[in-house]
Amino acid sequence: MTLMNETIDLMLSSAWQLIAAMVKVSIPLTVISFALALVLACITAAARMSRFRLLRAIFGFYVWVFRGTPLLVQLFIVFFGLPKAGIVFDAWSAAIVTFSLNTGAYASEAVRAAVLSIPKGQFEAASSLGLTGGKLLRFVVAPQALRIALPTLTNDLIDLFKGTSLVSTITLLDVFMVAQQITARTYQPLILYVEVAILFLIIVTALTWLQAYLEKRASRFIQR
């Protein structure tokens, strides 16, 4: 009974520190990086579907590199490696740059596949109705592509959120590093790391529910 009480006390006393670290570092890092990644994904997808061979090659190389190498290695190259070449990032900037580039590479494939899955007949029909440029993108491409790409993009968001645990390796005081610091004082790694896992699981579950909700909304929007 004493051991159980000690475990509960430790989890309660550490919970606010872990939650604070998640709110201050993990969640903002995820939101900022994913927003930038979406912009980069759209640009990359458009470039890879363009008629310009050089543009396709450049952005294809970018996707190949970032999908083919581990995220941790990319993080180390940006934070520890680039300063040797005179390019210095602080820990926050290094994390945002790395996560944005990594997630953007994956998300670009989802966007590109979604656009390519739209039947060509719909583009021809839109053109015959006089829809071109922005209107074509807004009324034909974007709604359908969003609905198709949404599950994959949400998975990319979840992977990004879980990947933020790696920033402890570049000195950012995230939830995982806080857990390590508490573990060093209490010698209770099992309890602390399980608590971290529970916090991540709660957020990921909420994102999964959000995905289901957005998919329903997108389907209703398409049907109108």
Tally of contiguous helical segments: 8
Gyration radius (Cα, Å) is 21 Å
**Mean pLDDT over all positions:** 88
Mind summarizing the main beta sheet?
none
Number of strands: 0
In angstroms, what separates the terminal alpha carbons? Answer: 60 Å
Percent range of helical residues:
over 70%
The topology string of helices and strands comes to HHHHHHHH
User: What amount of the residues lies in strands?
Assistant: under 5%
Which parts are unreliable, with pLDDT below 50 for 5 consecutive residues or more?
A: none
Shape: flat
Class from secondary-structure proportions: mainly alpha
Protein topology:
Blueprint lengths: L1 H47 L4 H16 L2 H11 L9 H26 L3 H9 L5 H30 L11 H12 L2 H35 L1
Structure summarized in a few sentences:
With 224 residues, the protein is mainly α. The protein has helices at residues 2-48, 53-68, 71-81, 91-116, 120-128, 134-163, 175-186, 189-223.
